[in-house]
Amino acid sequence: xxxxxxxxxxxxxxxxxxxxxxxxxxxxxxxxxxxxxxxxxxxxxxxxxxxxxxxxxxxxxxxxxxxxxxxxxxxxxxxxxx
Length: 82
Hints:
about 80 residues, alpha+beta, Rossmann fold, two-stranded antiparallel sheet, two-stranded antiparallel ribbon, about 10% helix, globular
């Protein structure tokens, strides 16, 4: 599971392309209200809410094993010693 990057995030498109060329099924989040569901990454992508590119239509993830998930973080705090 990967994410479709915004302009300010690390460009994952080369990784997505590489994985798909090797026959790996890539899933991405598809926003639905305040939540999301996983869908297969496929073309065409369209720009939706907040300028996020998402597949126009795709099948929903159906309880298959995900080997790895790459998720951007919004922010973090520095841990205090002690």
